[in-house]
Amino acid sequence: MNSLELRIPPPVVALFFALLMWLASLPFALPIPFAYRVGVAIALVIVGLGLRVSGMVSFRRARTTMNPVRPGATSLVRSGVYRLTRNPMYLGWTLKLLGWAMFLASPLALLLVPLFMLYIRRFQIEPEERVLSSLFVGEYSQYSEKVRRWL
Fold first, then answer.
1. For the chain, which end, N or C, has fewer CB atoms within 10 Å of the first or last residue's CB respectively?
2. Alpha carbon of 72 to those of 16, 65, 113: distances in Å?
């Protein structure tokens, strides 16, 4: 299982889950009015995109790497959205997938969102946290005690 750690870029994982969600929605969808589905979906996607962009801006300001396949930060980012969540970019992808599930109006698609979160936590976040703990000894553990992984 360790062979999957940091191997597949998170956007690829998110797109894969989005495709699975679409396939899961084909046999059954809830009768939710289209306007409501679109409104909720757009709101979730906008918030998710805002979190992702905010996280990327914080990384650029700190002049540190955003490469999720080769984590190796030059500084520990704790400002901006990183005061609220340690993983705003992954949380952003999660909200965008939640918006997609709402648009599809499929209970099966909705069930895939937590699976995405589990995958990202195990194969992306946990390895990144190990790297950050070794790069920022003590400092990262203090940060992770104050700021939650998701929200």
1. N
2. 26, 7, 28
Q: Are 115 and 16 in contact (CB under 8 A)?
A: no
At residue 68 the predicted structure's pLDDT band, cuts being 50, 70 and 90, is: confident
| Interacting residues of 115 by C-beta distance below 8 A, sequence separation 6+ | 17
The alpha carbon of 90 is separated from its chain's Cα centroid by a whole number of angstroms, namely 2
By the 8 A CB rule, do 39 and 149 touch? no
Counted residue by residue, the chain has a size of 151
The DSSP result for the chain, as a single string, is -GGGTTTS-HHHHHHHHHHHHHHHHSS------HHHHHHHHHHHHHHHHHHHHHHHHHHHHTT----SSS---SS---SGGGGT-S-HHHHHHHHHHHHHHHHHT-HHHHHHHHHHHHHHIIIIIHHHHHHHHHHSTTHHHHHHHHS-S--
Q: What was the pLDDT predicted at 1?
A: 57
pTM above 0.85, yes or no: yes
Which of 3-7, 16-20, 92-96 is the least confident region? 3-7
